[in-house]
Amino acid sequence: MKPEDRTSVTAESIANVLRETIGEIELERLGRECGLLKRKRDVTPFGLLMACLSTLGVSEARWLADIHRSFNKQNDKQVRYKPFHKQLAKLAFPRFLQLVVQKALENFAMPILTSLPVEKLAVFRDIILHDGCSFALKDSLSKEWPGRFTKVTPAAVELHVTMSALSDQAFAITLAPDRESERRFAPKASDVEGCLLLEDRGYEHKQFFMDVQDAGGSYIVRGKSNIRPTIRRAYDGKGRRLRRLEGKRLQRKLLPQETVDLQLEWGKAKALYRGRLIAIYKRGKHNKKTFVYLHTNLERAQFHYSDVATLYRLRWQIELLFKEWKSYANLHRFDTGKSAIAEGLIWASILAATLKRFISHAAELTLGVELSTQRVAACARHFLDDILQGLAQNSRSLTRRLGETFLYLGHNARRAHPERDRRTGRLRSGIRHSVATEVSG
C-alpha cells in the first residue's frame, strides 16, 4: 500500500488486500505453483492456512493436533490425523507458507509512522532495523538445522529480519540454521541508500560502514568493546576538544566518566576506515565504568551525540516485534522431527503475527486513533476467527466483519500513554503516528 493511499484506507480496501493476499483463489494458485496442490483434496491450501492462522494467531498451541482440530471445525470435516499430517510433511508445505509470507510482507506494509518535516529524520526515506531471532528445534533436526550451542541446543534456527520503522512491519525475512554467520544475511549497502540503518554489535564491520557511506546511506551500529582504533579527534558533550585522548588507541580505561564523541581511524591502507564513534558512559554493576559504543556516519554538526543515542533506541522496536511473535503467534519449538513441518509452522506463525499487525495498522488509519500492536495481538481471540470466516464467505461479509473489528479495537486496544510516547518513547526521535500528524496538521 502506497503512502498516498493512507487517507483512503477503509474496511472495503483492506478486505480487497486480504483477498488478494490470502484469499482462496490466490492460495490455490500459490499451492499449485509450489506443488502443494496437485489434485483436489479435503485438505486444501486455503483450509490448511486458515486453520494455521486461527490456531497459531489466537491462543497457545503446542501440538500439531491443535491445528488438526481447528481444520476439522472450520471446514466441517472429519479428516483423520494421518492424512492431515502427510500434507504438512510435504516439502511443498514450507515453500507454500514462505510464498504467502513474502506476498503478505509486500501487501501489508502501511505508512503508519512518518517523520515530521521540521525534524532531522526528514532527510531519510526510511529507518531500517535489522537483527536476528533464534530458538531451538527438536534435537533430531540437528542435521538439517545445526545450532551454535551443540551440547545445549543441537538443533536451532535463526530468523534474519529486516524491518521498516515507519511501516512498523518487517519487509524481509530469511530463515537459516542458527550456526550460520549473521552478517551474511544483513542488508546490502545498496539497500540502505537514502535510509538510516540501525544494527546491533554483531554487525560491526568497517568495510560495510565504508560501503554504506559510498552508497549514500547512513548507519548507527553498536560496536564491541574490544576494538582498538586510533582516536583522531575527541569532544565532550559541550563540543570542547579533549586533546589528551587524541592520537591514542581507544580503551575503556582511557575514557573519562562522561559520554564522548570521537573521530576514529581504524585499519590500514585501502581498508582504512575513518568514522565517528559515540562512547556513551554508563555506570555498571559494582560501580564499574562502562561504555556503549555507537558507530555512525551522521554529521556531528547536524546530529549531536544525544540525537544519535535517541535514534538508536528505535532499534528496540525490532526486539518488540520478536517478542510479539513469540508471545502472541506461537513462534516456538513444536514437537516434530519433520523438517518440513517445523519450517512450515515457523512461516505460519510469522504470517499470523504479520496479519494481526496489518489489521492493527488498518484500524488505526481508518479510525484516526493510535493503537498498540501488542494489545491488538492479545485481543486476537476476539476478532481473528471472524475475519477468517469472512474470507471464506463473500466480500460483503468480510468488509462488515472488518468494520466491526476496527470499532472493537478502537475501544479496546488504544495506546495507553500516547503523550508519554512523544516525550520518552519511540516518538521522541522525531517520528509521529500518521493519524496524529494529520489531526494536528
Question: Could you characterize the architecture of this molecule?
Answer:
The strands form 2 sheets. A 9-stranded mixed beta sheet has the order 4-3-2-5-6-10-9-8-7. Strands 1-11 form a two-stranded antiparallel ribbon. Helix 2 (24-34) crosses helix 6, helix 3 packs across helix 4 and helix 12 packs antiparallel against helix 13. Helix 7 (206-214) links the parallel strand 5 (195-199) and strand 6. It has helices at residues 11-22, 24-34, 45-58, 64-75, 81-89, 92-107, 206-214, 305-312, 316-328, 339-367, 373-378, 384-392, 395-412, 418-424, 434-440, and strands spanning 113-115, 126-136, 156-164, 169-177, 195-199, 218-223, 230-235, 260-266, 273-283, 289-296, 431-433. The longest helix has 29 residues, at 339-367. It has 441 residues and is of the alpha+beta class. It contains 15 helices and 11 strands. It has 2 domains: 3-109 and 343-428, no CATH class; 125-316, no CATH class.
Rounded radius of gyration (Å): 24 Å
Count of helices? 15
What is the number of independent domains?
A: 2
Mean pLDDT: 92
Strand order of the largest sheet: 4-3-2-5-6-10-9-8-7
Please write out the topology.
Blueprint: H1 11-22, H2 24-34, H3 45-58, H4 64-75, H5 81-89, H6 92-107, E1 113-115, E2 126-136, E3 156-164, E4 169-177, E5 195-199, H7 206-214, E6 218-223, E7 230-235, E8 260-266, E9 273-283, E10 289-296, H8 305-312, H9 316-328, H10 339-367, H11 373-378, H12 384-392, H13 395-412, H14 418-424, E11 431-433, H15 434-440
Parallel strand pairs: 2-5, 5-6
Antiparallel strand pairs: 1-11, 2-3, 3-4, 6-10, 7-8, 8-9, 9-10
